[in-house]
Write a structure and sequence with these properties.
single chain, 490 residues, mainly alpha, 82% helix, xenobiotic transmembrane transporter activity, Protein DETOXIFICATION
Length: 490
């Protein structure tokens, strides 16, 4: 389906939902539950499918670079790995989190028919994220002493620090990219993002091979190609948005982008804290694994487990994007029952898919580790932690969806406090005690983190079940007025 016509193609479904909302809970008294479910699944997959592909393609950019650098040398591989995981990883989480504020504002504005405000919101996010990138560039510049401070060897720290300075352009590409993604996502124009990301990845594959392997440019070639690929991705989306495909939501640059920046910043900051508290937990597991008696075995096993979980997580990540759009659109349009129904369907779908992954991994626990390593000790360790990995995958079917509901409804600040308490006061403390104090090794660390994730899932589930969706729809209308509304179209 042509992505440029996505808004018009979804309009009849959204209008029909409005009529059904007036009849009852999606018209269940007059139409079958099965038909309602099929319609909801069609709208969800229309968003989630391309969103999953986009995440996979963009996730693969750094993975391709890291894989090819591995043919240069072990120190270079470690340097690029540390830069991707720690330096760029921290910045990626912050920028993505701050850009997620648009999922609430753009989604609700689109549902309310305030299309011109979407472009204003995106421009405000560009301003805030650009200043954030300027601040985070200091982290890139001084990454060498920071990495040494956390115990990384001098050789790796020096090389990773140099590579980080070369990767500063990527940081500013994040600042432009994430607001555009949320802007397009809110309008369900997601297929364009998938095609642009796919084109950037194909180009990146060729240029990386040419510069890193064929021409032997080493880390310089790696930095140049990765930066260039992100620029291509950003420019492609800019051309799509400003070329007429979003003529109702993009009406040109406006001075209104510089109004309400303080309030916009705090919502963006709450979104960043909410996401980063989750994302940084994974890095903490790796750091704690390095403190065990056999750190190399533990770190390798933990990395393999998280690699598997990361790929499985791409589907819930797409559902997170889809449910945040559906909830924000329906609340903005004043259809709380439709938002509630969408939550029910996407949770059921995510649980079914992730359970299938969990069963496959559990059945192949003695076999799949060979894909990642030839070391017998590492393979045995991965087999031992597979039950913990499977629990993580199962919880990953519910928790991201509930986080997407929170973003769509604008609960970022509340969830940030929930994440702080669950992940760090409960999860991290339990991980340290069980893994290091009681000598339960990597199983203890992972088990402690799982306690935090389980508690967070339960809390978010209770919040969602107790939500007054009629009140949330009223708050969405109030939020739209406070952040601009029809009176602010310029």
């Amino acid at each position: 389906m042509d992505d440029s016509s996505s808004s018009s193609s979804l309009a009849p479904l959204l209008e029909e939902g409005k009529e059904n909302e007036e009849k009852g809970v999606l018209g269940v008294t007059e139409r079958s539950f099965l038909r309602d479910t099929c319609e909801e699944l069609r709208m969800l997959w229309y968003i989630a499918g391309p969103a999953i592909l986009t995440s996979l393609f963009q996730y693969s950019l750094a993975s391709v670079t890291q894989t090819l650098v591995g043919h240069i040398g072990t120190v270079e591989l470690a340097a690029v790995g540390i830069q991707n995981l720690v330096v760029a990883g921290v910045s990626f989480g912050i920028m993505l989190g701050m850009g997620s504020a648009l999922e609430t504002l753009c989604g609700q504005a689109f549902g309310a028919g305030e299309l011109s405000m979407l472009g204003i919101y995106m421009q405000r996010s560009w301003v805030i994220l650009s200043f954030t990138a300027l601040f985070l560039s200091l982290f890139y510049i001084f990454s060498t002493p920071i990495l040494k401070l956390i115990g990384t060897s001098d050789e790796i720290s020096n090389m990773a620090g140099q590579f980080s300075i070369w990767m500063i352009p990527e940081l500013f590409a994040f600042a432009i990219n994430f607001p555009m993604q949320k802007f397009l996502q809110a309008q369900s124009k997601v297929m364009a993002m998938a095609w642009i990301s796919a084109a950037a990845l194909v180009l990146h594959l060729f240029l990386s091979w040419l510069c890193i392997i064929k021409l032997g440019l080493g880390l310089v070639g790696a930095a140049v190609t990765l930066n260039f690929s992100w620029v291509v991705l950003v420019v492609g989306q800019l051309v799509y948005i400003m070329g007429g495909s979003c003529k109702d939501s993009w009406t040109g640059f406006s001075w209104s982008a510089f109004t309400n920046l303080a309030g916009f910043f705090w919502l963006s900051l709450a979104s960043a804290v909410m996401l980063c508290l989750e994302y940084w937990t994974l890095m903490i597991v790796i750091l704690l694994a390095g403190m065990l008696k056999n750190p190399e075995i533990a770190v390798d096993a933990a990395t393999i487990g998280m690699n598997v979980e990361g790929w499985c997580f791409m589907i819930p990540l797409g559902f997170l994007a889809a449910i945040s759009v559906r909830v924000s659109n329906e609340l903005g349009a004043g259809r709380p029952n439709a938002a509630k129904f969408s939550v029910l369907i996407v949770v059921m779908l995510s649980v079914i898919i992730q359970t299938a992954f969990m069963v496959i991994i559990l059945l192949t626990r003695n076999d799949f580790p060979v894909i990642f390593t030839d070391n017998e000790l590492v393979m045995k360790k991965v087999t031992k932690i597979t039950p913990f990995l499977c629990v993580s995958i199962f919880l990953g079917s519910i928790q991201p969806v509930l986080s997407g509901v929170a973003v769509g409804a604008g609960w970022q600040a509340t969830v940030a406090y929930v994440n702080l308490g669950c992940y760090y006061l409960v999860g991290l403390t339990s991980a340290i005690l069980m893994g290091l104090k009681f000598n339960l090794d990597l199983e203890g660390i992972w088990g402690g983190i799982l306690l935090g994730i389980l508690l967070q899932t339960i809390v978010l589930l209770i919040i969602t079940l107790r939500t007054d969706w009629e009140r949330e729809a009223a708050l969405a209308k109030e939020r739209i007025l406070n952040w601009g509304g029809s009176s602010s179209k310029t």
